[in-house]
Each structure stands twice: as structure tokens, then as C-alpha cells.
Amino acid sequence: MSSAAEAHPPAHPALAHHFEDLPAQREASTLGMWLFLVNEIMFFGGMLLAYGIYRELHYPAFVHASHHLDMRLGAINTAVLICSSLTMAMAVHSAAVGRRRAIVVYLLLTIALGSVFLGIKTKEYLDKFEAHLVPGPHFSAEHLHDENGSPLPAGEAREAQIFYSLYFGLTGLHALHMVIGIPILGVVALLAHRGRFGPAYYTPVELTGLYWHFVDIVWIFLFPLLYLIGRHH
Amino acid sequence: MSEHVVPVRVYLAVFAALLVLTAVTAGVATVDLGIWNTPVALGIAVLKAVLVILFFMHVKYSPHLIWIAIGAAFFWLLTFFAGTAADYLSRGYLGTPGS
Fold it and tell me: Where in the sequence is the domain holding B76, given as residue range(s)?
């Protein structure tokens, strides 16, 4: 007859008592994270729908307002975020195969790339502040032009403010998600440095990855919708 | 849940595809496709999102319960978009599509 120790090997320290085993715990955690992300999809979805309606109502103003955005910086930021998604995926992969030092390195790279994105975004916001394109009492359309370089008519200038409200709302919420994500990545990197994660258990790395990739997906939609309208005119 | 370790070459292939599609979407935006500019831009964005969800987010290797949760979410989102668009269009606020 086998001893009690053999019948019940010591449980992994991360296993909560109400779960049968680590895979069951991991599946429950992953589903929980997805339910949170599904809420986030609805949250951004509502705002994107508002964008879609106003864009159809005021299409020429939206095109002229959008032309003031720097398409090159937008494209560079898209590439930066995609690179950060790769380093994040590599952090999860390193945990799954048990390369503990690599988890920390890839998480730090993800933080660095996320910070580059926010730095470029800050530069873009600064340009908009200087051009008086921030909605509010000081909004002015004097830096906006139509295809022929003429100033916008009064009605369009007013509608351009709606575009910039949606621009700051959408990119601001997206940036807020990154500002929240970077400290979370830092905590996970610290835990990884202390050797908490290995092939048997790396759920926090995996779930932080899901969040980070979700933020990337939001930007994948924001880039064409905000920066690339009517660029062929 | 099966412990599926995604090979690195899959990640690299998805990464390359995402960068190429970003270049394509930026390039094609400067070409006049008539009414097709927006559908093409959104189509590329959806393709990129699907690549990220399936591979970077491991949904391809996830249990069916996760697929159901995500599928239900996108179905509801489309219902929400379609219902609102139908309301605006039927009241004539947005003009006739395609005209």
C-alpha cells in the first residue's frame, strides 16, 4: 500500500484549495479574464459606434480634421505596439518552457515598447494642444484646411471639434489602458524575477498577456479609423 | 485544459503578417478605391485582430467555452451596431447608403 505522501503529492503553492488541479484553476482564470475583456469590447464598441454615426453625419469635416493627424507617427506607433505584442507573447512562451530569466527580459522589453508608444502619443497630443485642436473654449480650426488648402467653412469647423472629441476620447481611453497595463507588467516582472513562474504555473503572465494583446487590438482599429480617413483625396 | 506550447516560429509568422498588413492598410489608404476604402481598411483591421486573438491570445488552442464567450460577445456587438445603424438609416439622418 502506498504511503499518504505518494497518494497526495504536495500541492503547488499557487493552487487554491477549491480547485481540483492547476489546469482546472487556469481554465477558470482564463475564462474570467475573457469575460472582463468582453466587457471591454462593449465599452470600446459603444464609443466606436458613436464615432461611426458622427462620421457618417459629418464626413467632410471628419476627413479635413483627420488630415491634421500625423499618419507617419500613427503608423510607427502601430508597429511599436505590434512589437510589444510579440515580446509579450514571447514572455508567456518563455514561462511555458521554463526559461525564467527570459520571462523578465521579455516583460521589460514590453514595458519599454509600451513607454515608447506613450512617448510618441504625448508628442502627438502636444502638437494638437499647440494647434488649438483640443475641444473646449480654446478650440480653433485655423490650422485645418480642405483639399485645396482653404480654411474650413464655419459649420465644418464646428463639426471638426466633434472629431477631436472622439479622437481624444478614444485614444485617451486606449492610452489609459496602457498606463494601467505598464505597472501590472512591472509587478509580473518582479514576481517572475523572484522565480514564481514556471511551466506548471504562469497564469498571471498569461492573463497580463491577454490584456496587453487586447489593448493592441483596440489600436489596430483606431489607427485606420482615426488616421486614415479620406487620405486618397 | 491541454498545455499547448505555441512554437516561436508561429509567433514570428504572425508578427510579420501584422507588420505587412499595417503597411498595406497605410498604403492602400492613399489610393482611391471609391466606396471601398473604408470596407478594405476595416477588413484588414478585422484580419489583424483575428490573427492576434487566435495566436497571440492562444484562443486557437483554448477550450470551447472560451470560443463561446468570445463568439457571444462579437455577436452581441454586431447586433448592437446593426440595430443602431438600422434606426439611424430608417429615420433618414444619415442619407441613403451608397448615394
Answer: 63-91
A36-45 in b/e form (b: 16+ CB < 10 A) is: ebbebbeebb
pLDDT in tens, A20-62: 899 889 999 999 999 999 999 999 999 999 999 999 999 999 9
Structural domain count, chain B: 2
- Write the ipTM: 0.91
B99, part of any domain: no
CA nearest to A41, candidates B45, B75, B56 = B75
Q: Which residues pair with A151 in a beta bridge?
A: A145
Q: How far apart are the first and last CA of chain B?
A: 51
**Same domain for B85 and B38:** no
In this structure, what DSSP letter does residue A207 have? H
Out of A27, A199, A224, name the one closest to residue B45 (CB).
A224
Best of A83, A88, A205, A217 to disrupt the B interface (most B CBs within 10 Å) is A217
Closest CA to A79 of B15, B30, B38, B10: B15
**Is A164:A135 a contact under the CB 8 Å cutoff?**
yes
For residue B45, give the nearest of A26, A71, A220 by CB distance: A220
**Taking CB atoms and an 8 Å limit, are A23 and B1 in contact across chains?**
yes
Q: Note the pLDDT tens digit of each residue in B17-75.
A: 999 999 999 999 999 998 899 999 999 999 999 999 999 999 999 999 999 999 999 99
Give the residue from A166, A200, A3 showing the smallest Cα distance to B1: A200
Q: For the residues of B3-61, what is the DSSP string, one character each? A: -PPPPHHHHHHHHHHHHHHHHHHHHHTTS--GGGHHHHHHHHHHHHHHHIIIIIT-GGG
* Any domain includes B97: no
